[in-house]
Amino acid sequence: MPPRVQLFRSARPTTIVPRVLQQTSPPLCLRLAPRRCITADEKPLPTADTAGPGPNEGQLPHVSEEAAAMGKITGEGGPEVDQGTPVQEVMKRDEKSQEKAPKVMQEQVQSTSAKGTRAFSTSAHPRHEAMVGSEDSGVESSASGHIFDLPALPLPANMHLKYRYAPIVKQVTNLLMRDGKLSVAQTNMAMILNHLRTASPPTLNPDRPLIPGAPPASHLPLNPILYLTLAIDSVAPLLRIRAQKGMAGGGASLQVPVPLSLRQRRRQAVMWILDAASKKPARGSGRGQFAQRVAEEVVGIVEGRSGVWDRRGGIHKLAVSARANLNVRGRR
Fold first, then answer.
1. Torsion on CA atoms 312, 318, 324, 329, rounded to nearest 10
2. Which of 144, 198, 250, 317 has CA atoms 20 to 30 A from the CA of 293?
């Protein structure tokens, strides 16, 4: 029979002996003898009676006091301390503030002012009196209360609020607008003009000349509105093709060239430019990408490397060939 296993056996008592720490000596910097300080008996400290002025004594005068002293020397007069907020009125009611105030302001408070006037004023009133009462100004007021003459009526056309922009800029902005968002179109128009202004001068192509009277290429970035107008007017078609029904008889239609006005010509050119810019591949992301592509298309038109020139040439060739249809009378 196997012996029994004793699970609960009396444990042997263990004794924990703490380890004795070795005493370490203090560092060398603490073992050095302290330095001997100089006591007040050997070298007495300076007293206030025999010493000179302290750091807070003998300060510089106030800015207004210094300005008043300089005004007396130069003869230009002191500072205009009576302009701005009514500080003098507050100081009259507070005696403690009068004692701590600068000398110039104390004299201003002590001086009595006439009844019915204020102790403070703004710079608008003396300037207004100086402008109106000056004899050497040479300004004669036609109406009472006005310093300068009123503008002559009717006002010029460029003084109207709705017509303050150039006609070409307003027309292109309206064509850029989508979903009635005029502010977005104006932002894009500003980006286009800024790109034309900061771009390098274009290189003109003699095979595709611009309209007569164009300035040199180096002058175009200096006037971005002229830059844009020159590009649009150069590719604007002079005619459009209209299908006139019944001119050939039997209900058959003929193509007839029709001249366009200046606004119609520019609109067609801008639509071609926007169509060509929308087909260009995007080179990034952002709200100014379309405006940059439009500006690059305008530069390409001036340099003669844009496809808009081919569209204009095709319309003109078709219009020249359709001139013979103008003399054809409709058959009944």
1. -100
2. 317
The per-residue pLDDT for range 204-236, each reduced to its tens digit, is: 999 999 999 999 999 999 999 999 999 999 999
**Using an 8 Å Cβ cutoff, are 301 and 235 in contact?**
yes
Name 61's Cβ contacts closer than 8 Å, sequence gap at least 6: 69
Q: Specify the pTM.
A: 0.54
Summary count for the chain: helices (H), strands (E): 12, 2
| Percentage, residues of the chain above pLDDT 90 | 39
Residue 215 CA to residue 262 CA, distance in Å, equals 21
User: Which CA distances in Å does 292 have to 28, 286, 288, 305?
Assistant: 75, 10, 6, 17
**Which of these ranges, 150-159, 209-218, 313-322, has the smallest mean pLDDT?**
150-159
The Cα 326–Cα 255 span in angstroms is: 9
Contact 202, 277 (CB under 8 A): no
What is residue 109's DSSP assignment?
H
Cβ–Cβ under 8 Å, residues 197 and 221: yes
